[in-house]
Amino acid sequence: MRKWTDLPQELQTEEVRKYYDVLKKKPISRFFKRAFDILFSAFLLLLFSPLFLTLAIAIKVDSKGPVFYRQVRITRYGKQFRIHKFRSMVVGADKGSQVTVSGDSRVTKVGKLIRNCRLDEISQLIDVLQGNMTFVGTRPEVPKYVATYTPRMMATLLLPAGVTSEASVYYKDEAELLDASQNPDETYVQTILPQKMEYNLREIEHFHLGHGLKVMVMTVLAVLGVKFKGKTVGAKK
Which 3 state secondary structure label does DSSP give 133? Predict the structure, then answer.
């Protein structure tokens, strides 16, 4: 973990300091979290290699374009990286809104299936192994949305972006929440993102490997159809 004075200027704020001090006091938890990320992602990449091949073939047969969608996202300390996601939309879909509603016409036939099963995100195991992501942490946003972060939200950039999180579990049907909106981008930034960030910031306050394992189990159950009701998390300024 970087020294406070080595952090990007936008992170050296009073709002971020509280969360920085929490993480700084947990070097053992941070070490084991990274060790777990490396070992488990390598194991799963090997285990799921046949599935990766099957998905790659299905995507190529279904529509023109690359197997992976390599969109720019933001991770630890504001670093940009190109995320690995199995392509579930037509080429050029990101030229429009960067949030997806249910029934989105940009989603391909195979894409609809793999999105429902969250299989489009399984390729992020590559990003975890590379160190750009972790299994449990704040979902990586595009620069456009990171630019809207409040000073307090910036604290989520003290850790690598995550494949899943409590917020991801409780907002699994996020697309449906955006359906009724005439401006999904605005609704996401003004309503959904702040609510999700409360969960993300709380996870930093209670940072430990055991909690991460619990969230991973919840994620698997959510994919299998189990519904989780979010706890009330008060917003703070």
Answer: strand
Separation in Å, CA 39 to CA 45, 88, 131: 10, 28, 12
133-174 pLDDT, tens per residue?
999 999 999 999 999 999 999 999 999 999 999 998 988 767
Q: Which residue positions in the chain have pLDDT lower than 70?
A: 92-105, 173, 230-237
Of 53, 116, 123, 117, the closest CA to residue 87 belongs to 123
| Residue 152 burial (CB count, 10 A) | 19
Alpha-carbon distances of 1 from 25, 57, 76, rounded to whole Å: 11, 40, 10
Q: Kindly state the DSSP code that residue 86 receives in the 8-state scheme.
A: E
The two tokens of residue 39 are 């070992």
Kindly state the helix (H) or strand (E) to which residue 197 belongs, with its residue range. helix 193-205
